[in-house]
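Re: export button greyed out
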Amino acid sequence: MVVKVYGPACASAHRVMVCLVEKEVEFETIPVNILTGEHKNPEFLKLQPFGSLPVIQDGDYTLFESRAILRYYAEKYKSQGTDLLGKTMEDQGLVQQWLEVEAHNFQPPLYNLLRQIMLSSHCGITRDEQVIKESEEKLGKVLDVYEDRLSESRYLAGDFFSLADLAHLPLTEYMVGPVGKAYMIKERKHVSAWWDEISSRPSWKKVLEMISK
Amino acid sequence: MVVKVYGPACASAHRVMVCLVEKEVEFETIPVNILTGEHKNPEFLKLQPFGSLPVIQDGDYTLFESRAILRYYAEKYKSQGTDLLGKTMEDQGLVQQWLEVEAHNFQPPLYNLLRQIMLSSHCGITRDEQVIKESEEKLGKVLDVYEDRLSESRYLAGDFFSLADLAHLPLTEYMVGPVGKAYMIKERKHVSAWWDEISSRPSWKKVLEMISK
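Workaround output, generated via the alternate export path:
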């Protein structure tokens, strides 16, 4: 039985999907319509009590929170597909560290930009130029740290591609695309090389193809 | 050489400290004065480029982000002290899931309350009753999910104490203490029993004693 991924229209689900492709785990996607509030229906809340996406079902095992799902599959299939965790305990610690940085430093300002620029009509908010300016400044400072880090190592956690890099794919794809902030990547030499490398992986191209259908 | 924990005055560092006590890892604490901006000094930024706390140094290995540090020590010393990860791969997945819930659902509204009620003078913000009301409502909804979950299992990830429970200790201690929201725990039978149990662990009592000095 293949893994079911609920919510393929959301960025966090793309994070799970690219991980499953890297780990060579078969999956199918189950649409959940956020616009009609399907994620708040009693049936869905049995799977995810907070009404958030994505959720996976693997046989009778259910798991939510995208970064928890990444860790589960990276660990469960450690020797299948791409190793996304690092070889030594210390490398693995650094993968966890940069995965936390993605969640707590990188995502919040970028999500604000995305919400203001791409989703303001859906979210029922009025576009606020001050929030856009502040979020862009915050994101710029985070990317300055990335630039330093990536001048020392090819990927965030070291010289190996890992969950830490993979977790950045979905939102950065929006950032360089519809959010219109590609210049923030391009003006930073090492960040730019890193982005070119991770976004051209066959796994990510496959996910982009899947979600464009 | 014992582990160095920078920033013992902040809640996230307490999370690391209680983990090290559970894992029977010796450590010493290194004060970092946030009020004088020591965490933004060039020397400190070499350890933690975002200027956040805590950071650990273990010999020549440096790691930041409290939940990454928890995972590192829980994995490195899996068979020493309390097992904080769960026995099966599926249990470990649930530990990761609830650890993410703590970070993304539980902490944000509680941190807002803490900031408004305890830290408004330090943070240079004016206390906003509307933010307090909304944060309390959000936190209440999260605790309702916890109440359901804890009616089915003794701890968040199952019938074993794990990183997922441990990560809640520092901010919940503030919540029932200086933030003045103990009633939100007490009025939920299973959350209340869970809190009584995890907060009376010798490890947490030891950390409370260390930070009260």
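Residues 67 and 85 of chain B are 13 Å apart (CA to CA). The button fix ships in the next patch.
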